[in-house]
Amino acid sequence: MGGYGSGRCSRKTAVEDCLSIDINYLNKKGFLKEGCQFTLRWSRDDWSASISAKAHKDYIFLYYTVDQEKGINYNVQLDKVPMNLGGYKNYFKCPKCNSRVEKIYKSSASDYFLCRDCLDLVYRSSKESGDELAKVRRKLDKLYSKLGGKWRGVYSTIPDKPKNMHQRTYLGIRKDIIKQERLLDELFCMKAEDLIG
Ligand SMILES: [Zn+2]
Q: Cβ(77)–Cβ(90) under 8 Å?
């Protein structure tokens, strides 16, 4: 209930505070070629990290240590999706939920690289959260128009079920709308924090 920003801001880990691996970057560098061994390094003012990896046909093998002693190793499956104009687009499959993603992340709370959803990450930088806002807005536009309504930001109320629509379809769309509006709420919180900080 209430408008955006009225919900409580949750303290979630931001994408920017995680190590991330971008499949498009690996592809561009030629690291996805079978048998290729490589090391990825991250460093900032006060910390640095590195992981080693080896590309196999359908997966990449990651091995690294956390907390200076604990050895971690596992496979991240790759998914090659054929493109219209030929060739393939590569994706990671999240080791936890199996969803197809372009980036996997590791937060300080996780020993493994997983997708953004599994780590429950949010965006902090205004560019990324701005992109994310636009995406959520587009989704809401679409969902509302499916119900014959128009999304008007804070002032929107979810339209009643159109006469010729199945109750189940309607409830599904309703659920999607609520989910997207919650996301929007969260993104607004992030922005508000940005302004204060
Ligand atoms: Zn996942």
A: no
